[in-house]
């Protein structure tokens, strides 16, 4: 039994946005890069499942964000696979949860944290909430919900979230070096304790705009680079075009990150 999962994150449809006076996000290329991702999924990879890990937009205003978010989701809907979404912090600057849920067009999903099963695996989506420049949290109510969700199923589980639950070394990260409070979840130790108690096989997130792997007590925590990250130092730039293809089996997790900065991770389950 193998399930093929494709991941994409931080597409940032919207206006150009510099950081530190340099062009870091190639937002103008976001629609064409998203279409290229969908084409590769349909023509080459043919995954069972596509998950969008959030930050679909470069927030600007309510009406602009609604239009761009819908455009991004509609583009991803072109993939001939099951499609699920994670809410990112940029997505909720002006929009509210009902706006995102309406764009997802999945009436069975009524909350930004939810779960589903596919191909013998259980997927749990967490909603990490960012208070700008202060902290990232999931909150006690969601931790209680997570504990109940993990206890309710014996299926191998994959966690999907926008921010990271690992203890990442942020040195060299052009966005978050010295700022763990706005990229790592405040309750991450509590989350990891729950993951250890249950059959969690992998945890995936976006947000940090780089590729990164931590293996903590046998569980891989994988951060995926932004689709539109500029891999050059400044303009005109080259897009990362990053996406991941994950092959899940009962014995192994294989992650192949495609794009300008490719990586491959393999984690075998201890017998």
Automatic annotation (TrEMBL):
Q: Which residue range or ranges hold the Calcineurin-like phosphoesterase domain?
A: 5-210
The molecular function terms of the Gene Ontology recorded here are:
hydrolase activity
Pfam families xref list: Metallophos (PF00149)
> In which domain of life is the source organism classified?
Bacteria
Q: Which InterPro entries match?
A: Calcineurin-like_PHP, Metallo-depent_PP-like, STPP_CPPED1
Membrane-crossing ranges are none
- Give the protein's recorded name: Calcineurin-like phosphoesterase domain-containing protein
Instruction: Record the organism.
Output: Chondromyces apiculatus DSM 436
């Amino acid at each position: 039994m193998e399930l093929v999962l494709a991941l994409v994150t931080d597409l940032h449809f919207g206006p150009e946005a510099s950081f530190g006076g340099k062009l870091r996000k190639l937002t103008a290329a976001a629609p064409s890069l998203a279409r290229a991702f969908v084409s590769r999924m349909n023509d080459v990879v043919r995954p069972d499942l596509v998950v969008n890990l959030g930050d679909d937009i470069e927030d600007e205003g309510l009406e602009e964000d609604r239009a761009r978010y819908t455009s991004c989701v509609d583009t991803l809907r072109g993939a001939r696979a099951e499609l699920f979404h994670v809410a990112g912090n940029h997505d909720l600057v002006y929009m509210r949860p009902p706006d995102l849920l309406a764009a997802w067009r999945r009436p069975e999903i009524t909350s930004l944290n939810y779960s589903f099963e596919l191909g013998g695996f259980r997927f749990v989506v967490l909603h990490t909430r960012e208070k700008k420049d202060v902290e990232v949290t999931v909150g006690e109510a969601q931790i209680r919900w997570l504990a109940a969700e993990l206890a309710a199923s014996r299926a191998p589980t994959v966690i999907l979230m926008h921010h990271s639950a690992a203890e990442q070394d942020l040195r060299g990260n052009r966005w978050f070096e010295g700022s763990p409070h706005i990229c790592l979840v405040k309750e991450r130790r509590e989350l990891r304790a729950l993951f250890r108690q249950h059959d969690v096989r992998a945890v995936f997130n976006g947000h940090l705009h780089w590729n990164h792997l931590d293996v903590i007590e046998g569980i891989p925590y994988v951060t995926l680079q932004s689709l539109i990250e500029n891999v050059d130092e400044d303009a005109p730039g080259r897009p990362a075009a990053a996406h991941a293809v994950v092959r899940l089996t009962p014995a192994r997790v294989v992650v192949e990150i495609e794009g300008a900065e490719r990586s491959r991770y393999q984690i075998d389950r201890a017998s």
